[in-house]
Amino acid sequence: MNLLDFLIAPAHAQAAGAAPAGGGLGMLVMPVALIAIMYFLMIRPQMKRAKEHKAMLDKLSKGDEVITSGGIAGTVTDIGDSFITVEVADGVRLRVQKAAIGNVLPKGTLKSA
User: Fold this and answer.
1) Whole-angstrom distance, CA of residue 32 vs CA of residue 73
2) In whole angstroms, what is the distance from residue 97 CA to residue 95 CA?
3) Strands of 73-79's sheet in order across
4) Domain membership of residue 45 as a residue range
5) CA distance 85 to 68
6) Do 71 and 48 lie in a common domain?
7) Is there a single domain that holds both residue 79 and residue 31?
8) What is the rounded CA–CA span in Å between residue 67 and residue 64?
């Protein structure tokens, strides 16, 4: 017996045993659980916010006071299919994409600001 065998036990061939019962099922449960957790924590809330944003854009009308995602506040003067005209000051109008509207402000907010 040499010194290396004394420090590290030699590996001996063992008879191949049967696979542990339920090993395949346990391997499938973890990825399914991870996908379910990701759906409820990330995907579902994002879909809900997108649905609320689309509903807000559909209810948008002339005269509404809005703030864009870039922080520009103004009053809606014209609504197209994909663009909205926002008046930010007397005679100053900007055309922005509909999706750029971040929030609809309560009436009279811009007058008090």
Assistant:
1) 45
2) 7
3) 92-97, 83-89, 73-79, 65-68, 101-105
4) 25-59
5) 11
6) no
7) no
8) 10
